[in-house]
UniProtKB/TrEMBL annotation:
<dbReference type="GO" id="GO:0120147">
    <property type="term" value="F:formylglycine-generating oxidase activity"/>
</dbReference>
<dbReference type="Pfam" id="PF03781">
    <property type="entry name" value="FGE-sulfatase"/>
</dbReference>
<dbReference type="InterPro" id="IPR016187">
    <property type="entry name" value="CTDL_fold"/>
</dbReference>
<dbReference type="InterPro" id="IPR005532">
    <property type="entry name" value="SUMF_dom"/>
</dbReference>
<dbReference type="InterPro" id="IPR042095">
    <property type="entry name" value="SUMF_sf"/>
</dbReference>
<dbReference type="InterPro" id="IPR019866">
    <property type="entry name" value="Glid_motil-assoc_lipo_GldK"/>
</dbReference>
<feature type="domain" description="Sulfatase-modifying factor enzyme-like">
    <location>
        <begin position="52"/>
        <end position="458"/>
    </location>
</feature>
<dbReference type="InterPro" id="IPR051043">
    <property type="entry name" value="Sulfatase_Mod_Factor_Kinase"/>
</dbReference>
<protein>
    <submittedName>
        <fullName>Protein involved in gliding motility GldK</fullName>
    </submittedName>
</protein>
Length: 467
């Protein structure tokens, strides 16, 4: 009797569960007639070409030195590799573009210090009493939260995340609505003056009494996840979440340090600061700073994407791999020596096709002593400017003499975090023609900035674009 009772009881449980499953499925998919239709997104994805970038369709090409190797490097033997489609900046990142990154870091640090000073000096600590009616430094207090109408989720996030952290590590939302005041004659009150005074160099360090923003304070903190290492080892996720803080201001002293017994002071003083050089490629940026710029650019774009309903997040901007860079530099010309083909560095009219050091060291022969504007000379077959000369460019790939043998034939990229030697490509304004060849390889230490090395970014293309 007991056995029969439990059998009947279990049969009832199974029947109830089956009924619940039937109800759930029938309620969740009333229009599919029971067919497998898949989970569809509310908004169809389409690839939007990023501003200032060109689409590189991807494909196979013969990578490496195509003909002679006069330096005897023997580190770039020819082989066939394939790269996926991607977007690439049509020019090197310019001073103007990198300056936007620097200014964002400057403004975020300034707003954070102003917000804490406002909190410290506030007569009424309730942020709800600030806002539009606030005066002086209180206009720059942390962005107030609507604690009356907030949802349970918003309350939980505010109490457990946004109100924790101190100093520059604070997660409290900054007030980006109020314009910062940089004219010292218009500072609203003493508290504002105190904060701004702490951000500028000391009087005894000022030249001709002019105090400038202390560039040592321009530190950018960001987080990134080491996907490849996590996939290979399978350890805890938190073990691969990296936290980096680095100064983002370009090293303008490279114009002095790169050249002994040479007068380059005008470039040192004005190249990054003066508006005459706004559209010239940024230099004095090391490999880590270039990666930080990529992270910031991704955050800038995705912040906008989140502000718009139903817009998906875009893939991250990054440095190109060595293979991607060479494929893009060739511009669709296989077996070419230069981005324009070759074999010469001049046109049929005798005009130089790139900015480099021609004619046994005559810097002025090509019309430029140092760098030129990022949009100069003719673009290659993909629409990319200065893939040879002007400034050499950082890639994401670590230098290894055997990397052409070790790397995969599909999207090759021999990357090693412990290897501080990073590949630079394209040659520069101070290099001879050999380094302008699309198959030439060179390297520099990741923590080293040079007056002849810049960078450009790429972004993955999602999906397959058919011809």
């Amino acid at each position: 009797m007991v056995t029969n009772f439990f059998k009947k009881y279990n049969m009832k449980k199974v029947a109830v569960l089956a009924l619940l499953v039937t109800i759930i499925y029938s309620c969740g998919s009333s229009n599919d007639r029971g067919e497998l239709v898949g989970v569809k997104s509310k908004r169809k994805w389409f690839a939007e070409k990023p501003y200032g970038m060109v689409f590189i369709k991807g494909g196979s090409f013969t990578m490496g030195k195509q003909d002679e190797d006069p330096l005897g490097a023997m580190n770039a033997p020819t082989r066939t590799v394939t790269v996926q489609p991607f977007y690439m900046d049509e020019t090197e990142v310019t001073n103007s573009e990198y300056k936007e990154f620097v200014y964002w870091v400057r403004d975020s640090i300034t707003r954070t210090k102003l917000a804490y000073q406002a909190e410290f000096s506030s007569i009424d600590p309730d942020p709800a009493n600030a806002g539009k009616n606030a005066v002086g430094i209180q206009r720059y207090a942390f962005a107030s939260k609507d604690t009356v109408n907030e949802t349970s989720y918003q309350k939980y996030m505010r109490e457990n995340y946004y109100e924790v952290g101190e100093g520059m590590d604070s997660l409290k939302p900054l007030n980006w609505q109020e314009e910062l005041i940089w004219d010292k004659e218009e500072y609203p009150d003493t508290d504002y003056v105190e904060v701004m005074d702490s951000l500028y160099i000391k009087k005894d360090e000022a030249l001709n009494g002019i105090r400038t923003f202390d560039t040592k304070l321009l530190n950018y903190r960001y987080y990134w996840f080491d996907n490849e290492e996590a996939a290979r080892t399978g350890k805890n996720r938190k073990d691969f979440l990296k936290n980096e803080v680095l100064n983002v201001y370009p090293d303008t002293t490279v114009w002095i340090k790169d050249f002994n017994y040479s007068y380059n002071d005008p470039m040192h003083q004005e190249y990054f600061a003066h508006k005459a050089y706004e559209d010239y490629p940024v230099v004095g940026v090391d490999w880590d700073q270039a990666r930080a710029f990529c992270h910031w650019r991704t955050q800038k774009k995705n912040t906008y994407q989140r502000s718009r309903k139903n817009l998906g997040l875009v893939p991250g901007f990054r440095l190109p791999t060595e293979a991607e860079w060479e494929y893009a530099a060739r511009g669709g010309l296989d077996y070419a020596k230069y981005p324009w083909g070759g074999p010469n560095t001049t046109s049929d009219r005798g005009c130089f096709l790139a900015n480099f050091k021609p004619v046994r060291g005559d810097y002025a022969a090509d019309g430029a002593l140092y760098t030129v504007e990022a949009v100069s000379y003719n673009p290659n077959g993909f629409g990319l400017f200065n893939m040879a000369g002007n400034v050499a460019e950082w890639t994401n790939t670590a230098y290894n003499q055997m990397s052409y043998y070790m790397g995969s034939t599909m999207n090759p990229n021999v990357e090693n975090r412990e290897n501080q030697r990073k590949i630079v490509r394209g040659g520069s304004w101070k290099d001879v023609a050999y380094f302008l060849e699309v198959g030439s390889r060179d390297w520099e230490y990741a923590d080293t900035a040079r007056s002849y090395i810049g960078f450009r970014t790429v972004q993955d293309y999602l999906g397959t674009k058919k011809n």
